[in-house]
Specification:
The chain is α+β, with helices and mostly antiparallel strands and 166 residues long. The protein is 46% helix and 13% strand. Helix 6 crosses helix 7. The strands form 2 sheets. Strands 1-2 form a two-stranded antiparallel ribbon. Strands 3-4 form a two-stranded antiparallel ribbon. The chain is built from 7 helices and 4 strands, in the order H-H-E-E-H-H-H-E-E-H-H. The relative contact order is 0.14.
Amino acid sequence: MSTMINSRLRNLGATALVAVAAVAGAGSAWADDSVNTGYFGGVAIMGYDTVAYFTDGKAVKGSEEFTYEWLGTPWHFASKKHQEMFMSEPVKYAPQYGGYCAGEVVGGGVTVNVDPEAFKIIDGKLYLIYDVGNADNFAAHAAEEIPKADANWPKVAANLELDKYH
């Protein structure tokens, strides 16, 4: 009996978490839980602090000392404050398209190797790109590129789930 109640509570908690994430992520390109960890390392954004893009306006390497696991992936932060900010609103700070190259998602594919220095914040959302030149191009054409990437992301995410890109 206790096991059945615990199982139901876990399912209810998971359902509530999904509902909260769906509401919090409305208008966000988080269609699933795919997180780019690169080919090696197993850490989101190659260990860079996703909050620092917003607070410092630049790529800042995070520390293992300030780690938070979200969507089954460790995220590193440069400070306890940044870690807490992310913990309270992960969808707000997480990069779009799971941290895969936004420019490649526009074309319906993925590039795992993004450059943490090649980023743009557009309308309060973080986009990671393959390189700085392409980041500038993506931002210059954001009005056309972002809707295409948003439309492609569900299929790209499904293919990632099936491991079609590896």
